[in-house]
């Protein structure tokens, strides 16, 4: 009887884990069904996002990245985080060591891995937030309005998306000050469990 109960609990735990964990693709990267599949032409992706009333964010990941897995299984599995991002951003995933073709804003055709090198990205996950319109004569990295290298807690992660959505990069309030203000507001409202 104890063994049967254990097997039922183990099966339930497995199903529960599968229900909230992100799918892993053949490339070894975790996938969200709401990530956009594009031809990775950065200017075109910026324009498509703008037409949809969204902003483009590119996420660099790599196979076996524990921080990428945490981002998918904790942050992007959180409805508050995922719903905000899905409603305001078009997300395109890049494999830091991938061979898929990428067209930079300056017109140069690269692979995902040569784009990562050209743009100076060495950590995964790295999120690159692009402007509302594609500028001419710049690389994607030069045009980025913000970059988030590495994995962070829920509020740092979500607040970066909110800061970009509110165009905080155009104002005087640096992201760190914005983030501290939001954290204080969450504490005052009794909503902050942990950062």
Structure, described:
- The structure is a single chain.
- With 195 residues, this protein is an alpha+beta fold.
- The protein has a domain at 24-152: Glutaredoxin (3-Layer(aba) Sandwich).
- It has eight helices and eight strands; from the N terminus they run αββαβααβββαβαβαα.
- The protein has a four-stranded mixed beta sheet with strand order 4-3-7-8, sandwiched between helices. A two-stranded antiparallel ribbon has the order 1-2.
- Strand 1 (23-24) and strand 2 (30-31) form a beta hairpin.
- Helix 4 runs parallel beside helix 7 and helix 7 (154-165) packs across helix 8.
Question: Any chance you could write out the topology, listing elements then pairs?
Answer:
Blueprint: H1 2-20, E1 23-24, E2 30-31, H2 42-51, E3 55-61, H3 66-75, H4 79-88, E4 89-95, E5 101-103, E6 109-111, H5 112-119, E7 126-129, H6 140-143, E8 146-149, H7 154-165, H8 175-188
Parallel strand pairs: 3-4
Antiparallel strand pairs: 1-2, 3-7, 5-6, 7-8
Helix pairs in contact: 4-7, 7-8
Domain Thioredoxin-like fold: 49-133
Pfam families: Thioredoxin_2 (PF13098)
Organism: Hoeflea phototrophica (strain DSM 17068 / NCIMB 14078 / DFL-43)
